[in-house]
Amino acid sequence: MGVYRDTIKIVLLCAIWFSFSSGTNVIGKQILTVFPYPTTLTMIQLMIINCFLGPTLALLGVEEAPYVTRRQFVRRIAPLGIGKIMGSVSAYISILKMPVSYSHTVKALMPLFVVLLSYVIMREKYPWKVYLSLVPIVGGVLLATVTELQFNALGLIAALFATMCFALQNIYSKKALKELHLHHLRLLLVICQVAGIVVFPIWMFTDAWELVSAPHNYFQHMWLFLMLPLNGLFNFGQNIAAFTVLSNVSPVSYSVATVTKRVVIIVTSLQVLHNPVTSYNVLGMAMAILGIAFYNKAKYDSNLKSKVLPTHIDDFTDNGSHDSRKQHIMINSSDVTNSNHRRIPMKII
After folding, report:
1. Is 86 helix (H, G, I), strand (E, B) or coil?
2. What is the DSSP secondary structure assignment for residue 345, as one 8-state letter?
3. Which of 170, 201, 209, 233 could cross-link to 312 by cystine, CB 3.0-4.6 Å?
4. CA 4 from chain center: how many Å?
5. Cα–Cα distance, 250 to 89 (Å, whole number)
């Protein structure tokens, strides 16, 4: 009876996660069609996460953030905050210029960026099965690209750049979690706090100026006042739901769930937004998604053989498959007091 109860619980959690993720993308596309300001949309999402995630962590009993040196903050936290801004804004530019379904198909290239960047940054090599799994991913994205009816060069570049930013964030968050001994939802909060500080002056010199000088009066669209915060709440809910699933299933099950989530987003966007697609376009999407499944399986098998389960933030960026239960590392008080570095409290950032 307990097995059935746990199964129903996971299925319901995944349904909530997929619904929030699909809603974030579909609502985001509808907003950007009338209100083409990706930086504003990103800033609102960050504001909502910063307002609600702290109390949520306290409610869940997540441990407080430890102290870090200024050197660690500059090397580990600040780049993640800047990368989140660059990746999020670029992702919304891609959705603004292209259909959601095609944008998410391009994001299927994340494993390719992870493999390449891991080698360049950390000289990390993978078994041949991992490299082989990249072939259907690249082939599927190429097929979807050449058959995309609403292709846009700027949208493609933005999607590729966003995918690269998320891949870098995966790599560096892995380093940050290992070095700083942080719960990964706590790290998400700190990253969002840094990103919120960084994005505000950017918003002032880009979207804010355009909104003031724009001839179109967006205040006539009263539904925007509802949809903008609703999009932010969906984004917040997707992060919490993803973490909850992550902490309740195995790495392989989470890999399957992330692939299923991407399929649900693509299908939902096609059904709701009625994007025109061809049979070859759908075939390319299917190839890319299947390639991700092969990649996740090959990567997990590789980690299992080496008896090391990698740790990184995932659905807060995009595609991950790791168990958060491996991430709870206690910090010794002597590690904080015996350092020669000046330390700053991360929790007041």
Report:
1. helix
2. E
3. 170
4. 30
5. 32
The closest of 101, 70, 29, 33 to 276, measured between CA atoms, is 101
What is the torsion angle, in degrees rounded to the nearest 10, for the CA atoms of residue 92, residue 95, residue 98 and residue 103?
100
Q: Do the beta carbons of residue 44 and residue 228 sit within 8 Å? A: yes
181: left (phi > 0), else alpha (psi -120 to 50), else beta? Answer: left
Nearest to 288 by CA among 159, 97, 124, 95: 159
* 125-182 pLDDT tens trace: 888 888 898 899 899 999 988 888 888 999 999 999 998 988 888 777 777 877 888 7
CB of 246 closer than 8 Å to CB of 324: yes
Neighbours of 169 (CB within 10 A): 26
- The answer to whether residues 206 and 93 touch, using CB atoms and an 8 Å cutoff, is no
Exposure b/e, 175-186, CB count within 10 A at least 16 = b: bbbeebbbbbbb
Arithmetic mean of pLDDT, 38-43: 93
Mean pLDDT of 179-207: 87
Going from the C-alpha of 299 to that of each of 21, 306, 346, the distances in angstroms are 24, 11, 33
Where are the alpha helices (H) located in the chain, listed in sequence order? 2-34, 38-60, 70-72, 78-97, 100-106, 110-122, 128-146, 153-180, 184-205, 207-213, 223-246, 251-273, 279-305, 333-337
Return the C-alpha torsion angle 324, 171, 329, 127, nearest 10: 80
Phi then psi for residue 61, to 5 deg, are: 75, 25
Q: Which of 132, 108, 162 is nearest to 289 (CA)?
A: 108
- Other Cβ atoms less than 10 A from the Cβ of 258: the count is 23
Could you state, in order of their start, the residue ranges of all structural domains in the chain?
A: 2-348
Mean predicted confidence (pLDDT) in 27-55: 92
- The C-alpha atoms of residue 58 and residue 64 are separated, in whole angstroms, by 9
Question: Is 275 in a helix, a strand, or coil?
Answer: coil
